Queue: 3 jobs
Job 1
Amino acid sequence: MRSRYAAYAKGDAAYIQQTTDPDGPLFDRDTAAWTQGILRFHRSFRFRGVRILDAPHAEGDEGFVTFHARLEADGEDGSFEERSRFTRADGRWRYHSGERRSGGD
């Protein structure tokens, strides 16, 4: 989770794409458009930190991480909390989907 947050902060679209489950709702086969969307998100926010709130031991090839991401856009708080679902395939964990739990601090 921390590595994906860092990738968004750096605008590393390739890493985001490589660590997204192809069966998840955010996966886009149009990688050029997907890259542009990731870069737009990266440019829209200042990334102020991420805190892992809960990361229970994974059951098989599915795991969950709850985190709080601190973001800011034009002086406004864009922070949020999410419970993310990760799936493992070929020994690699990939982001599948997330359920947003709340907005800012």
Note: The chain has a mean pLDDT of 95.
Job 2
Amino acid sequence: MHFTKMHGLGNDYLYVYGEVPPDVADLSRRLSDRHFGAGSDGMVYIGPSSVADFRMRIFNADGSEALMCGNGIRCVGKYVYDKGITTKTNLRIETLSGIKDVGLQVAYGRVERATVGMGRAEVGDALELGVGGTVVRGVPVSVGNPHVVLFVEDAQSAPVDSLGPRLEHHPSFPDGVNVEFAQVLSRTEVRMRVWERGSGVTMACGTGACATAAAAVREGLCQAGLPITVHLDGGDLYIRVQDDFVVTMTGPATTVYEGDVEL
């Protein structure tokens, strides 16, 4: 099997153009292993779509299937353009959370960045979540996949490794949830770290950055209509949340290497 390792701000996946195999869950677990496999946060399969330009399916490092991946969809745009599968710079990509519009920014014949129309974020009322005898406050957000955003004083020292997995499987989220720890720096700037459902700590999460910005606007901490810089472990994403909570995301996409593996 031929694959391309790509990342968006360090959120890395193995990208394959072709049919999803029956044993994809086992394959994703095996190849994602950072000691015995290629090493990644999961696998992304790209193929034709009957309703859009392309279709993407995302499988996490634990083998579970994700609904959407903000960093991944930017890399999908780069993949199909850089490899000459399309000449379009404005794409519609089918995901399990709907069709997303992706605008590619090209330099010297290669995609460097992409802007993704993420649709309307659904921000719920803050929840009081009991965890291990303590109560934390989290804002639930859906951007096609589920998130809960915790606003903290210091994102760098936040208990991502310990609290993240407990909230991922909290009874309030029967299907699991992505957990963001966000420190608001100004009306247009946030520092965020993430525990991703099915993958654990990752260097970046595009949908998580969108969810965080939407929650910050809803809570009156950030400004709607202006680009909000979200600083992640792997770099920066630029999120714009309109008054009606329609969200766009801009960030880079990078190819690491091509590889082949015997199955």
Note: The mean pLDDT is 97.
Job 3
Amino acid sequence: MKAARLVVLGVAIAAGGIAAYLAAGSKAPPPPPVAAAPPLETVDVLVAKSDLTRGQVIQSQDVGWQSWPKDAANANFIKKPDRPDAINDFVGAIVRVAMLAGDPIRGPYVVMAKGSGFMAAMLPKGMRAVAVDISAVSSAGGFILPDDFVDVVLTHRDKSSTVEKYISDTILRNVRVLAVDQTIDQKGDAKVAIGRTATLELTESQAETLELSHQLGTITLTLRSILDSASSASEEDDEANGRGHSINTVRFGVSTTGTGH
């Protein structure tokens, strides 16, 4: 009897060992080690170290190098391997497009003045800066600010009428305001101020049309919506009618072009 118990006990121990062996063999293998990510390749890019406003003259402390993912640095960025002395190159340049701290410096955003005044340096090639006298009434209550787009309206006497009669014509469309008085950049928290002079960005023919209009009547600026600043083909046609010192007049649905004399 004693021997039988020993046999049963031995069989139980053997069965337990076999079960433990099988259980250990069924465990999932350990996961393979995770490969380390390759290091991010970077390049030093010239950026604004502080907020830069339009018309500001860049000083050495205003720009500096900052590491940038190489794949994200496009061809318009100024990279240290290509231009190691770029900081010195941009000292004295004039900001054409406002930038926030950390924004990459791009060539079109600044202009090298080379001794010129900042307004002459900021004008695109072929454009003219023309001043217009304004008041609260003729400048949308003073809400016209730098970088807004406006239409120019001429109000003058109708010389073809036998009675005293005045008509208004839009002589220029969608022109950019460069400055109001001496202000060329409008801060976000700035208060509305009534200026006395608005400086407009015009082509040569537009400037001639505007100067002629001063002799014919009263000039008013009408503020355009920011969503409506793109010129349409019809507006460009109207603008073309203003070339050669002529003015397009619309009366009772009939359009005529005259010299205004």
Note: Residues 231-261 have pLDDT under 50 and may be disordered.
